[in-house]
Design brief:
The protein has 323 residues and is α/β, with parallel strands linked by helices. The protein is built from 13 helices and seven strands. It has a domain of 180 residues: Protein tyrosine phosphatase superfamily (Protein-Tyrosine Phosphatase, Chain A). The strands form two sheets. Strands 2-3-6-4-5 form a five-stranded mixed sheet, sandwiched between helices. A two-stranded antiparallel ribbon has the order 1-7.
Length: 323
Amino acid sequence: MEMPASPSQLHPHRSDTYSYRVPTPPRIVVPPPTLNNQALPDFRLTTTSTSPSPHHSHLPALHYNPVSENNLLTWSYSQRRQAQPVLPYLYLGPMTAVKDAAFLEQAGITLCVGVRHSCGPSGSNNSVQSRLMTGVLRVPAELGIATQVLDIADNAALIASFPRITEVINSHLSSNNHSNSNSNSQSKSKKILLFCESGNERSAACAAAYLMETHANVDFIAAMQIVQAQRFCVNFDDAVKRVLQSYWDILTARRDVKCHPGEEREGGLKAERRDTGWSEQRRSSGGKRGFEPEGDGDEAMQDVDDGARFERRAFAPFVDTDM
């Protein structure tokens, strides 16, 4: 028989509420863009020369002004069915914009790039969305406009498709630069329409990734701000934000390696010398490698109890209270 608790016995109680769910990373908050004195989004885009893509050499020659439209204030619900210019040569929109022959001719679209959801390992499917996208591409084909479709299975495969989409866009822009001295005007006349079923999800993420890769001062937050400022109905959920953040880290690492190509090799040589020196010292001593503390701090940490670890913390997860 269990003895009743003593009235003077202390019982721990939690200091704050908590849940038993799996820990999740903090959410990425995209603030509204900064406005200039004309109440327009203030974006100063600078093309990059350190991108790994071989087709970016034409971008510094495109002296364009950022698209100065304040769709954040003038946006209407019906505009979700239309395409909007994210850059002077890059439009973003839904599949309904591809079927609008008048818009394609008026905007001067020369390439339609579709981002389609694929099912199965083969990358192709017979879903309703696939058949719809195949049907809408007949309109630009009849107008002599080039078309290309990229199949993406899920968000995990989305990050792998970003470099390919960038290559498709820039290859189209620079396709005639080597054959005509008036290449700048030809590049300006070329327009690309990037679309998916709604124009608000994966194609918007691809447009943001393109901005990050081709512009030196656009990180993943600024890229989402620019895309949403031009097409207010885009939807960057938490998963897509994480994908764009990871892609920005990859681009930053690539640019650092390209700017300092010798540091990586030099660091590897130093590590190799340190390893070689340790191996020679081990062979000369003739003994096995044992535990060698780095200093007095590591030795002292072995005797630290839980009370000493928590004594400087302002918050305690549990407190002792009387019954």
